[in-house]
Design goal:
- By secondary structure, the chain is of the alpha+beta class.
- The strands form 4 sheets. The protein has a 5-stranded antiparallel β-sheet with strand order 6-5-9-8-7. A 5-stranded mixed β-sheet has the order 11-13-14-16-15.
- It has helices spanning 4-71, 76-85, 117-124, 165-216, 231-266, 285-291, 302-306, 310-321, 365-400, 407-438, 451-468, 487-503, 550-555, 562-572, and strands at residues 93-97, 130-135, 140-151, 154-164, 270-275, 280-283, 325-331, 338-348, 354-363, 447-450, 472-475, 482-485, 510-518, 521-528, 577-582, 586-594.
- Strand 13 and strand 14 (521-528) form a beta hairpin.
């Protein structure tokens, strides 16, 4: 598993939390800004109106007080002096004007100029005779309010109040400060609440992200633990269900892949597959052995690995043509030459284009050899049967033509016919015996026998035949060697080998039979001083009907099946048969048999072989 996986998921989740908290804060701030944009002007207007009402109220209160003094007969200048004394702060100015809006000559507004708008509004009876304007005397923006003085229902004068506008600004500034503090506290509360809510919302997402990250790195057992029943909870449940299904499907695919790999690996045929780009996809064990490759070559370009091999050519041809192809090719030379059959098929996904090719390579050396031997067997059997049958038919026709009247000729012809018939019977018997051995139809009668005694008996039986051909036949002294075998069959093997040695050894030659123990095996060797066997004939010497010298073998009465029968008998006993020969120096035929259990020496104390 990649150790950076969970850290990456945590970073993504933290980023998600920050985005959620920031969006919550942004939403709250935007809401506060919108509310403030609507509320601030309203508050300003309300505070301004309240301030104007307060100043106007002061003006009206002063007007009601001064109109009583006016009724008592005080002059306008006196009223103006009393009004000035009513100011509750130094920055406030209160004055009196006549019914035309003109101040007394002693007033600070004496040189004011035209009638101020608030005074004119008060003279008209306007409901809000207030104004904000520049005071040329004090050089300041001020708020003015005017209230009429009444006597018997008519305006007899106007009281004018002036306060600095900055006072109203100070009041509004306190409102702004309170509002700003509220905005900051609201944003802070929104951030805290948003962070808490973002953590609550992102926690299940973080659990999902961690689970998905672990699954992506191969931990298919990982699941997201989310307790909620909301949409994220449903998503987590669906995610866990998907993980379970994915695990089951991958397990099923892995099992199928294991089965396929086991089947392909256990195939004796070589299997090679490439993709459309020519990279190796598959090499089973047989293919690796055949091509001299290993599993690390999978994934590499086939051209770099196989080079100019016939398998590569077959795969490339199949991919190029998009059709099945087959061919046979050879590997090795001489006795190591093997024949292989290649069958290649293109890989397609449905009806799509060719995406690769797979080739199956089978070793058909033994099959072709069996086919050749079968053809040769048919030809040899036909030939071996035709020769005596032709002889029998020829002599029979001669007798029927009148030669039977000559008793001597008739007897000679009948003797020849009898010999050919005997030869036919021997051939048929050998073919039957060989067939039964090959098909395991002739059960072996295993028993404990002394191999040295069997060899001595075989030599004794064939000693007269060797003497007739002036061949010295001897058996080397041997210790008692016990084997578990069918004595009659082993005697047949010994007889065949010794007879062959006698037949192919010229007069004055020697045939020696030796029996010895070699480890857990008994070894029997039959050596002669005959003409030997050419090296080219040695690989096929145990084939059926194979003769090195056909004319001499036939004259000796052989059927060409003796060595084949001997080989099958020895192999049926779990042994091996072999031949060594040098042309002009003679031959040595030897075979091995497993020793009887009681004769096998313990490990570490093997008896030395007798040479």
């Amino acid at each position: 598993m990649n150790p950076r996986g969970p850290t990456s998921g945590a970073v993504k989740s933290a980023s998600l939390r920050r985005r959620l908290a920031a969006s919550h804060l942004l939403l709250a701030v935007c809401s506060l800004v919108v509310v403030s944009a609507y509320l601030v002007p309203a508050l300003v207007r309300l505070q301004t109106e309240r301030y104007e009402q307060a100043v106007l109220g002061q003006a009206r209160m002063a007007a009601r007080m001064l109109q009583h003094y006016q009724q008592e007969g005080l002059t306008l200048a006196q009223l103006d002096e009393i009004a000035g004394a009513l100011a509750w702060r130094q920055e406030i100015y209160i004055g009196v004007k006549d019914a035309d809006g003109r101040p007394p000559a002693t007033s600070r507004w004496a040189a004011e100029g035209p009638v101020p708008p608030e005074v004119a509004a008060a003279l008209r009876g306007a409901p809000m005779p207030v104004a904000v304007r520049y005071d040329p005397v004090l050089h300041d923006m001020r708020l003015y309010a005017a209230a009429p003085m009444l006597a018997q229902g008519r305006v007899t004068g106007v009281v004018q109040v002036s306060v600095p506008r900055v006072w109203m600004r100070d009041v509004l500034m306190r409102v702004w400060e309170a509002l700003g503090t509220a905005l900051v506290l609201g944003a802070l509360a929104a951030w805290v609440l948003g962070a808490w809510r973002a953590r609550r919302l992102s926690a299940p997402v973080q659990a999902l992200a961690r689970a998905a990250d672990r699954i992506s790195h191969g931990d298919l057992d990982s699941r997201a633990v989310v307790a909620g029943r909301d949409e994220i909870g449903h998503l987590a449940h669906a995610f866990n269900t998907m993980g379970d299904q994915l695990r089951k499907q991958l397990d099923a695919l892995a099992q199928e892949r294991t089965k396929i790999d086991a089947i392909v690996s256990s195939m004796t045929d070589a299997v090679v597959a490439t993709d459309g780009a020519g990279r190796l996809l598959l090499l089973n064990r047989a293919a690796r052995d055949l091509l001299g490759l290993d599993a690390r070559n999978v994934g590499h370009p086939a051209g770099d690995v196989l080079r100019d091999h016939a398998v590569l050519r077959g795969l490339e041809r199949t991919i190029r043509l998009g059709t099945d192809s087959a061919e046979e090719f050879t590997v090795g030379t001489g006795a190591e030459e093997r024949l292989f059959h290649l069958s290649a098929t293109p890989l397609r996904a449905g009806a799509g284009p060719v995406s690769g090719a797979v080739a199956v390579v089978r070793d058909v050396t033994d099959l072709r050899r069996a086919e050749r031997l079968r053809r040769e067997l048919t030809a040899n059997v036909s030939h071996e049967l035709r020769t005596p049958l032709t002889s029998i038919k020829g002599f029979t026709e001669t007798l029927l033509a009148g030669a039977w009247a000559d008793e001597e000729t008739c007897r000679r012809f009948l003797t020849i016919i009898d010999a050919e018939a005997t030869r036919l019977m021997t051939l048929v018997d050998d073919l039957t015996a060989l067939s039964r051995l090959e098909s395991r139809a002739a059960p072996l009668q295993f028993a404990s026998v002394r191999l040295d005694v069997l060899a001595a008996d075989a030599v004794s039986r064939l000693h007269p035949q060797a003497e007739r051909q002036s061949v010295a036949l001897d058996a080397a002294p041997a210790p008692a060697i016990m084997v578990t075998a069918d004595g009659n069959r082993i005697m047949q093997v010994l007889t065949n080998l010794i007879e062959n040695a006698i037949h192919f050894t010229p007069g004055g030659g020697r045939v020696d039979v030796a029996v010895r123990a070699d480890g857990a095996e008994a070894v029997v060797s039959v050596s002669d001083t005959g003409r030997g066997i050419p090296a080219d004939d040695l690989p096929r010497i145990f084939d059926r009907f194979y003769r090195v010298d056909r004319s001499r073998s036939r004259e000796a009465g052989g059927t060409g099946l003796g060595l084949a029968i001997a080989k099958h008998i020895v192999e049926a006993h779990g042994g091996r048969i072999a031949v060594r020969s040098r042309l002009g120096r003679g031959s040595v035929f030897s075979f091995t048999l497993p020793l009887a259990a009681a004769e096998v020496p313990p490990r570490g104390s093997l008896r030395p072989a007798t040479r």
